[in-house]
Design brief:
Helices cover about 45% and strands about 15% of the residues. It is of the alpha+beta class. The chain has one domain (about 5-95): Immunoglobulin FC, subunit C (Single alpha-helices involved in coiled-coils or other helix-helix interfaces), CATH 1.20.5.420. It is globular, with a radius of gyration of 15 Å. The protein binds zinc ion. Zinc ion binds next to loops.
Length: about 110
């Protein structure tokens, strides 16, 4: 396949990822299971086309169980140097360092 085509393919993949995560956001309070499936699809596209999910989108769902974070299903705690997000569906914990500019783990 031409390099140009491959690039185009990945652009489309990214557009679909963004779209799917937006859908997930929209449906999370209506149909949580469906919402999770959108995230799952976005993840699948991301792996298949090797396109990274933008960080601000990645922070909207649990990377372990893939359920979008929504009121009552996640907990945010602050300590001196980090934001600690706990998914209450699977208890997966993520930490975001506050001082470090290169925030990792997202
Ligand atoms: Zn989870």
């Amino acid at each position: 396949m031409l390099k140009r085509e491959k690039r185009r393919e990945r652009e489309i993949a990214l557009e679909r990822i963004v779209y799917l995560i937006e859908r997930a956001e929209k449906f999370k309070n209506i149909d949580y299971e469906l919402s999770r499936r959108y995230v799952e699809l976005a993840r699948r596209i991301s792996t298949r086309y090797r396109v990274r999910i933008p960080r601000e989108l990645k922070m909207r769902f649990c990377k372990k169980c893939l359920y979008p974070y929504k009121a009552g299903h996640f907990r945010v705690r602050l300590n001196k140097s980090a934001v600690i997000v706990t998914c209450l569906n699977c208890m997966h914990v993520r930490r975001y360092q506050l001082r470090d500019r290169n925030v990792r783990g997202a």
